[in-house]
Amino acid sequence: MPKKFDFYFLLFCTSSLASLFFIDEGYGVLELGFKLTSIISLLFFYLTKTKRINVWYILILIFSCFYTFFLVYDVEFLALGTFLMIVNRAIYVIIAQQLMVKVNRKKLILYLLTFLIPVAVIFPQLKSHLKGLSYPILAIGLLSALMCSLAFANYLKKMNTQNKFFLLGLLLLVIADILITFNKFIDYKFYYVIIYTSIYYLARYLICKAMIVEKD
User: Fold this and answer.
1) Cα–Cα distance between 14 and 110 in angstroms, integer?
2) What does the H/E/C string look like for 142-197?
3) pLDDT at residue 31 in the model
4) Domain residue spans of the chain
5) What is the mean pLDDT of residues 157-170?
6) Is it the case that residue 21 has pLDDT exceeding 60?
7) Which among 12, 52, 64, 152 has the fewest CB atoms less than 10 Å away?
8) What CA–CA distance (Å, rounded) separates 91 from 117?
9) More confident residue, 181 or 201
10) Mean pLDDT score, 126-154
């Protein structure tokens, strides 16, 4: 039997795509409107699909709305948007810990050290460009390494679709975070904005799919 057409998934796709046409075109309100619509539609997509609601995931989407708002107007609210991204990544760590099955502590430390390597390599290259945001950006990097190491350990322990989507979503978030930092503070390119915004949308969708507990 074919799957029922999903309105919220379509709304997520169309609003995400539409937002790309208004980036840096002087239509901040429209850009923000489509970006917020994509997050809110993903929230309703999740609520209509899952049989068990994860409150932490709901908080992630709420904080995503707030930091998206502040980062669209990044000249005035960049510091506040960055702080909310830190909160967002901290909640991802909590969710990753929730999904964890029993993992050897030594292996987990090894995975964490592995994911810290990109932070140790990239952050010193960025530090001189970050001005007053160097420590908040470092915090995002450290939390990202922690959430990815937890998700990776969990995936190796239990290689199912949920854990695969969650890990891929987190890795894509990290890639997008690196691109947005490079683009804002070192070398601005319009096509970078299109790329990292698209990556964020894909990452959010994969994480949403991972969080859905299928209804009977």
Assistant:
1) 41
2) HHHHHHHHHHHHHHHHCCCHHHHHHHHHHHHHHHHHHHHHHHHHCCCCHHHHHHHH
3) 85
4) 8-211
5) 93
6) yes
7) 52
8) 22
9) 201
10) 91
